[in-house]
Amino acid sequence: MTGRKADVVLINPGDRKQIYQDLANNISAIESPFWVAVLGAFLRNNGLGVEIIDANAENISPEEVSNRVNEIKPYLSAVIVYGSQPSASTQNMTIAGKICNALKNNTSSKVAAGGLHPSALPKRTLEEENIDFVIEGEGFYTLKNLIEVLKIPSEDFSGIPGLWFFDNGAIKNNSTAPLIKDLDEVLPVAAWDLLPMEKYRAHNWHCFDNINDRIPYGAIYTSLGCPYSCVFCCINAPFGKPGIRFRSPKLVVEEIGLLVNNYGIKNIKIVDELFVLNENHYMTIVELLIEKGYDLNIWAYARVDTVKPVNLQKMKKAGINWLALGIESANPDVRDGASKKMRVNDIKKVVRTIQEAGIRIIGNYIFGLPEDTNETMQETLDLAIELNCEFVNFYSGMAYPGSQLYKLAVKECWELPKKWHGFSQHSYETLPLPTKYISAKEVLKFRDEAFNRYYKNQDYLKMIEDKFGKNVRKHIQYMTKNKIKRKILALNDY
What CATH number did the domain enclosing 232 receive? Predict the structure, then answer.
């Protein structure tokens, strides 16, 4: 084949309208796909020609993706399925499947699927999707080795760890690929130059200090994995087990500097499932950022029990303006069942301490954990209203593939979404889990009503106006007017 412009095309799938409904227009974020970009950098550094198509950011159809691939003529097209939230990639599988189908029907390229969801369900993904390969695990060396075999060309894929494929119609899988030990060697500075950097948009709340300054936006990892095993989370599916590995603070800050200097980025998300964990790691990053003197607006994930008050002032000085806390539930029995053993008084104390340091909080709550009742969900809502965090996310309990809840749901034969985008918290087809005591419909109804109660609460709106001004208050009021539909509720609004 002549006219080949790259060896591999990496594709970030996404259908914002399907996932977020009308919230996609100007409320939700458009995340830069760091995982795709770092895979691209790794492959390029190993002598392979790489192109990236961010179908989500560019908002292009599967057919348009296949047309672009036809122009590039790669040996391999790899659809990398990660979500804007580390534990929610499954919601993108519907559009990922359509892209894979278009590639198989309209191009001569071999097609692979990789990422979190395919790693959680590799056999099922290979069976159900119109693809040639599944990349299980982190994917770096699996992808590199696969492309090199295709270039020979050869049909012998037996020596590639982490690969699932067809052999004479039968599904075969090789040994599991080992985890990367030296992240600095394998996770270089991402290939930002291959992405449409002008299209990424920060979350609305991330920019409450300047609500019209959401573009440009970047997202980076400083670590991979998580040492915890929360029942609702599937973050460790590509890694096989709980654990965490770190990039060097020096490399992280170097990458942030590149985003600042080359792309004018101020708004940054640290994608790590848990950034505030290893004090030496995150505080070294903080110290280096302070030395650089960048004007940053960063948000990152923390746990209530990992926050150390003594570090908060420096974190704020480094530009960490927002911390996302997984509070989950107010009820100790429900919270303990989710592997979050924290007392309510501890939660309240940490929230106030963070806010006193000038750092804002995104409180994350889950309605519909296995032990939840209407009464315990009300306890959680009451706590959320009392804490009055600058922003909250109210989630429904969802059995993401790769999580313990998914295994439990399959074992108990609980009804799961019929379409992969039904795992999205905001889609029309959303179908949360039932609990031991209440139905999925009751869970979702409570969640949607809680959203309204929180964001229309006058104490909350007054706090928002006092901290961020009237324009942000109006923005919140506009946000609550966005109507989203729920199939199982047969309602047209929240």
Answer: 3.80.30.20
